[in-house]
Structure formats: C-alpha cells, structure tokens
C-alpha cells in the first residue's frame, strides 16, 4: 500500500514538473502543442524521434529549446550529401610522440553528446544514415574494433524534409524502426502564426529555461516504466499491432490488400512506453484506450508501408492506420 502511494506521489510530482517543461518549451516553439507532447513522450520513453515537415516550421528551434529545458548537452549535425560516417562518429588519428613512437588516438565525433540533432537527415547518403544505427540501438559506436560508449542519456532527434523534395534519400527501413515516434510538423493555424510573428520579430524574444537535469530525466524514464498498464490496454496494443500485419489472423481485408509489410514487436514496445508517457503528460496515473488511439499513428507510420497497388489507388498510410485503429478499438469496446 505504501509503495503504491509513493508511486502515485512520484507520478503526480513528475507531472507537475513536465507541465513546467512544456510551458518553457512553448515560449520558444509557439503553438503546435501535439508536436511538443510527442517530443516529450519520446524522451520519457527513452527513445529517438523523427520530425517530418517542410523547412521553416521551427523544427530546429524546437530541438534547441528541448536541449535547454531538459538540461542535456546537445550538438547539431547538418546532414549533406557529402557527409561521411566519420564526420558523425569520429575517427582514429595516428600521432607521433616526442620520442618518435607512434600510436592511434580516437577523436570523438559530434555523436558523443546527450541530445543529437540530425538536421535534414534524409539529405545524406544511406551509408551515412546507417552510421547512426549502432549508436541509436546500442548507445555505443565501434571504431577500429573498439567500442566507445555514448553519454547517458542519449537521444537522437532527426529532422526530415518530405521525400518528394529534390536532393533527398529515403531512410533505410531498419533505421526507421529505431525511431520511437514519427512526429509530423504541419503548418501552424492562423492564430498561431500571428503569435509567432509578434513573438519573433520584435526587439527581444522569450528564452527557454532549464527545468530538468540529465539525472532527473533518467529518473523520469525509470518512473514511466513503473507505471501500471491495465490488461485491457495491453490487449488493445497487441491486437492493434498485429492487425497491421498482412496474413495474420487479426488482419482485415484493408490491411491484406493495402499493406506491403507491417510493424514488428518493436512497435508494440514503443506503444507500451509512449501511452504511459502520454498519460503522464495529461496528468493521469495510468494509460487508457484513448492514449493508444492517440499514439497509434506516430508509432506505426514509419514501421509499415503500403503496396504499390494501394498507392496507385490513392490510398494513404495515415488513412489506413486511422481506419484500422478505429475498427480495432470499436471491436475491443464491444467485447
């Protein structure tokens, strides 16, 4: 009983602190509350985020504000077609000592930080994009046979321009699966754009203030994993993820005819973590079906693909995800 009361008190205290963090972030990144929520859910889940949107929508500004608010050492890498893996990870150089002896010394690349901003990640070649795979999954990099651990915590927030723009490369599927969430950044509405004009074209601008430290973020990530998840919510997560796999008994006609490949177990893991984080951000002690529905699209979008025939018919991945999620939720509610 006492343990439960302590957990409730910790969750409530963290919820208040997260409210302060959101307020500080939105002083720099005005509006787009859902985007801020998804980015915070990514960090609370201990994962990486892929922000997709056209240039000029404030993605870089958001990541910079997040680094300040969460107390993380951040670095930015501008991805370009000529960027090489060593430019991100680091490399070994041969040094000559005063006595004439020679030895290799490892020089750390920008990946050795707590929050790496991979700006316009899809402008680099697939070879360079793949250089981040080990860092994102294992939190370490291997150079010349030696493993070098990355700082803790370690998060990648990558920005991406839409694929249809010139000079971009699609990210490898294996790397896409390493992103906890895909966060779509859309144009602001009229009122938000008016507020942006007033806030950013004057003599001074609001600054973000630090709310968390790195150790406090790590403690928050551990607390998220301790949050209880009801059996009904867990079953909904499993039913939903399996419903998007063509050929599975749970898959319906729409998925079997439109989805080329579906999400793996990592999608279910991501949903389990992010629904907890969303419940926490909304001041609740445990996630509900509403959280699963809300996080379905950002978790699943980068983990599945439509068939060529479905694309030719004009179907979109977002429409398929929303339709199947609605159907699965309706069946679960009626059961």
From TrEMBL:
This is MoxR-like ATPase. Belongs to the MoxR family. Residues 48-181 form the ATPase AAA-3 domain. The lineage of its organism: Bacteria, Pseudomonadati, Pseudomonadota, Alphaproteobacteria, Rhodobacterales. Residues 255-316 form the ChlI/MoxR AAA lid domain. It comes from Meinhardsimonia xiamenensis. InterPro entries: ATPase_AAA-3, CbbQ/NirQ/NorQ/GpvN, ChlI/MoxR_AAA_lid, P-loop_NTPase. The keyword ATP-binding applies. One of its GO terms (molecular function) is ATP binding. Pfam families: AAA_3, AAA_lid_2. SUPFAM superfamilies: P-loop containing nucleoside triphosphate hydrolases. Keywords: ATP-binding, Nucleotide-binding.
């Amino acid at each position: 009983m006492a343990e439960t009361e302590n957990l409730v008190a910790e969750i409530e205290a963290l919820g208040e602190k997260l409210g302060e963090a959101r307020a500080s972030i939105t002083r720099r990144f005005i509006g787009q509350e859902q985007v801020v929520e998804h980015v915070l859910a990514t960090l609370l889940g201990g994962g990486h985020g892929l922000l997709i949107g056209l240039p000029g929508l404030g993605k870089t500004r958001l990541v910079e504000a997040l680094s300040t608010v969460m107390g993380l050492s951040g670095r930015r890498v501008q991805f370009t077609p000529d960027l090489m893996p060593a430019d991100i990870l680091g490399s070994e150089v041969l040094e000559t000592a005063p006595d004439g002896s020679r030895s290799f010394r490892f020089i750390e690349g920008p990946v050795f930080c707590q929050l790496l901003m991979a700006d316009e990640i899809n402008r680099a070649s697939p070879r360079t994009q793949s250089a981040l795979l080990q860092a994102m999954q294992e939190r370490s990099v291997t150079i010349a046979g030696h493993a070098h651990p990355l700082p803790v915590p370690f998060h990648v927030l990558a920005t991406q321009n839409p694929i249809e723009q010139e000079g971009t490369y699609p990210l490898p599927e294996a790397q896409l699966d390493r992103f906890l969430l895909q966060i779509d950044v859309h144009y602001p509405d009229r009122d938000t754009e008016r507020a942006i004009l007033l806030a950013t074209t004057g003599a001074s601008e609001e600054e973000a203030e630090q709310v968390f430290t790195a150790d406090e973020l790590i403690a928050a990530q551990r607390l998220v994993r301790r949050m209880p998840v009801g059996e009904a919510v867990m079953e909904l997560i499993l039913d939903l993820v399996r419903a998007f796999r063509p050929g599975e008994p749970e898959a319906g006609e729409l998925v079997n005819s439109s989805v080329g490949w579906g999400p793996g177990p990592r999608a279910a893991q991501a949903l389990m973590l992010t629904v907890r984080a969303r419940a926490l951000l909304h001041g609740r002690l445990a996630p509900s079906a509403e959280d699963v529905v809300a996080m379905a699209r950002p978790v699943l979008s980068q983990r599945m693909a439509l068939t060529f025939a479905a694309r030719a018919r004009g179907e979109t991945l977002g429409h398929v995800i929303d339709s199947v999620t609605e159907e699965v939720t309706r069946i679960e509610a009626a059961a």
